[in-house]
Amino acid sequence: MARIETPKRVRGTQDIFGDEQRRFAQVLATFEHVHGLYAFQRLDLPVFEDTQVFARSIGETTDVVSKEMYTFPDRGGDLLTLRPEFTAGIARAYLTEGWQQYAPLKLVTSGAVFRYERPQKGRYRQFHQIDAEILGAPEPAADVELLVMADQLLRKLGISEGVTLQLNTLGDAATRDAWRDALVAHFEAHRDQLSEDSLVRLEKNPLRILDSKDPRDRPIADAAPDIDAYLTPEARAFFEAVTAGLDAAGVAWTRNARLVRGLDYYRHTAFEFVTDRLGSQGTVLAGGRYDGLIESLGGPATAGVGWAAGVERLAMLLDEPEKPVIDAVVVPMGAAAELRATGLVAELRRMDIATDMAFRGNMKRRMAKANDQGASYALILGDDELANGQVQVKALTTGEQAKVPLDTVAQSLSDLLFEDEIAEDHGERLPPLAQRLTTA
Ligand code: ATP
Ligand code: MG
């Protein structure tokens, strides 16, 4: 018979397991915790949308839309795209569901996003983002709140060291038009030195030349005029309100006058949290204000501001994750004990005690597995114990053992675990196990 080739993982996708998975889960759990402190509501969205949703809101001239989208006709002939980000879908949902009535609306979501890119460390074709948006709030206080939340998330993850918040303003419509004209004049004067990509950008999206990574573009981009000379008093006041809010909240930032978001509907605030620890994949969290986006989808003028962060990139920055632990392992010896142990395990789990019991193996192997799993206690049940209606409780951290009645062991263990937790919180020493179990 011909040998069947085993299937491979699709290029740029990941099977996330073990320590990597624990880091990943820690990012998501920390995000849940932090956004709860800021009273955001979670939203869950479709993984795919009509291609137009992304094409119109992200913009045809961006890399994401022109090169990176997973787009396909479904069996009915509709053109669909796997989401390459969340903001477009959130704006679409806001319109479809008529959420204007709830504005201002503070929303978060997370999950898989898809981009056809060249895979490398920190860059995948299916990756994951956490995302936070405030819709219907034109006030700079919304920008501040999102930035303070992002900063708190990074601190809570323990990775704020070496991460810088880079901040810029793109001004209001009048500012931006004036600045754009000045940039076009500057780049036109240096046409012959620009890369091919930037010549295309000059036609379609000249602001993007500012963040070009091509070394040929850098000197010209670096010498380009800053936005500052073109800021209207209103735009200047908005930026000052954002920076004053950050200062008041104790969030450090630096100005990066070269930081842009390419599309016409971006206004005012643009920002990135950048680390020096991930090489060219150094942007861990990025966002800005997009007051014109909902209009570009055919909706009423609606303010919006938000950010997205790559879960994998945040996870890569985390220290060694804590090993998982469980409360107890039940170790039966013999067929009769095995069956009684099945009942005991069920009872413990129903009492919210994290318990495991190996499906097979001798005493030695089962005890070794209990240690690997980081169990606090082993409950050993042999024929002798069974005959006497008893079970051996072994504290795996100290090696102490004591026998207790089988009928009440679940409650005894529950009490032990509770005392252990209190003692740990207060740094207290506990009496010997035998004493604790008899006085319990
Ligand atoms: P980059 O410049 O690294 O391509 P981007 O500007 O395309 O990033 P955004 O669209 O702002 O990124 O997405 C927000 C965040 O999502 C990024 O800051 C990064 O952490 C993460 N991210 C973006 N693309 C990928 C990818 N292909 N794989 C893993 N994470 C990614
Ligand atoms: Mg990209």
Automatic annotation (TrEMBL):
PROSITE patterns named among the record's database cross-references: AA_TRNA_LIGASE_II
SUPFAM superfamilies: Class II aaRS ABD-related, Class II aaRS and biotin synthetases
Chain sites annotated for binding L-histidine: E85, F86, T87, R115, Q129, E133, R261, Y265, Y266
GO biological process, alphabetically ordered: histidyl-tRNA aminoacylation
UniProt catalytic activity: tRNA(His) + L-histidine + ATP = L-histidyl-tRNA(His) + AMP + diphosphate + H(+)
Subcellular location: Cytoplasm
GO molecular function per UniProt: ATP binding; histidine-tRNA ligase activity
Keywords (A to Z) from UniProt: Aminoacyl-tRNA synthetase, ATP-binding, Cytoplasm, Ligase, Nucleotide-binding, Protein biosynthesis
Coiled-coil regions listed: none
Domain Aminoacyl-transfer RNA synthetases class-II family profile: 31-332
InterPro entries in the record: aa-tRNA-synth_II, aa-tRNA-synth_II/BPL/LPL, Anticodon-bd, Anticodon-bd_dom_sf, His-tRNA-ligase, HisRS-like_core, HisRS/HisZ, HisRS_anticodon
A GO cellular component annotation in the UniProt record: cytoplasm
EC number annotated for this UniProt entry: 6.1.1.21
PANTHER family, A to Z: HISTIDINE--TRNA LIGASE, MITOCHONDRIAL-RELATED, HISTIDYL-TRNA SYNTHETASE
Family membership: Belongs to the class-II aminoacyl-tRNA synthetase family.
Record's subunit section: Homodimer.
Name of this protein: Histidine--tRNA ligase
Species of the source: Sphingomonas parapaucimobilis NBRC 15100
Record gene name: hisS
